[in-house]
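Shipment paperwork, digital attachment
Item: protein structure file
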Amino acid sequence: MAAVTTDAPQTHLSHLDDQGRARMVDVAHKKETSRTAVAAGEFVTTAEVIALVRADDMPKADVLATARIAGISAAKRTSELIPLCHQLALSSVKISFGFTDSSITVEATARTTGRTGVEMEALTAVAVAGLTLHDMVKAVDPGATMNGVRLITKDGGKHGYWQRDGEPITPAADAAPTFDTTRSAVVLVASTGGANGTRPDTTGPTIASWLTDRGFSVRGPLVYADADIAVGLRDALRGEPSLIVSTGGTGVSPTDATPEATAALLDIDMPGIADAIRTRGTSATPHAVLSRGVSGLIGRTLTVNLPGSPGGVKDGLAVLDPLLDHVLAQIAGGGPHDE
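Attachment content:
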């Protein structure tokens, strides 16, 4: 999968002010969202060292456990080491190792709920875990090197999901996201232009902000090309969120495929929600009846398709507002069961 973001990359350095002086970025205006970052690096050494580490037979015992603790500790202290980083309340830092005949792969996954990302925490964890490996093995291989420290994926905030081009997803990177609350939601955007970086996503952030204001832990917006929306829906379902709200791809153009992708996975169809969204839309434009959006349950996840226009999203959210808490309570097994 190519790198996916909801916006084109910035053309300026965010940590410099208009006079070119270093600054800490003010994130007070940003919404708190669930954020995840995965970083990796390669510790290149000799086959002898690999055999010793795997056999837990180094002069300094338990090499990997020491490197893991060092990486976690470094992630927690990133703001002390990288001068312009914000202090973050990390909810999780996980470090894993893999082996080849001549290297140890170090991978770190960092998570938080906040106003800024955890990329630097994941990268710092990898770098310090690698340096600790070097310290542990230098008596046997002083020429060992730590190479290719890089960001693999990140998720959360206005830019949504991003993956490094050409980077295979490892089991740790592809692990299901951890939601910090039962009120968990994923925003999914079907937009070929958005996925290609040629069109800004205006509807996904609106939905994410609306959900955040109502106490949801939000993942995304995840932006996928129309042709890849079935893949995007499977991505959105990882971790079994309480709610998925999609936008776009509900019309009758040859590329619109969101309803088909959703309907193929539905366990329980809930046409009343989709019909109410269309009915409300017709008060603004007769074209609203052309939306083919569906709604229902995939497992225990309420999934709702909204149109791709700002007006269609506004109408859809207005329909959901008085219903959402009630229907989620029913799905969870609580609350009144009114028809």
